[in-house]
Amino acid sequence: PLVECGAPPALAGVVYDGDVANRKVGAQLTFACRPPYQLVGRSTFEDRSIRCTMDGSWDLGDLRCEG
């Protein structure tokens, strides 16, 4: 069966850029924050993108928005 992730997590202040409808393994979205929130942390790949993983979850690393 084809593995897909659900919707990316709805976190306070977060805005996702990219094809949010693409939830297949390997899909990638850019993680950003709405003002007045500030971006903190990095993804597992040391960038600002989250990825849909083989286990059907979004890999956020420690990315988050604070404010």
Automatic annotation (TrEMBL):
Listed InterPro entries: Sushi/SCR/CCP_sf, Sushi_SCR_CCP_dom
Entry keywords, A to Z: Disulfide bond, Sushi
ATP-binding as UniProt keyword: no
Domain called Sushi: residue spans: 3-67
Source taxon at top rank: Eukaryota
One Pfam family named in its UniProt record: Sushi
Protein name: Sushi domain-containing protein
Species assigned in the record: Pristionchus fissidentatus
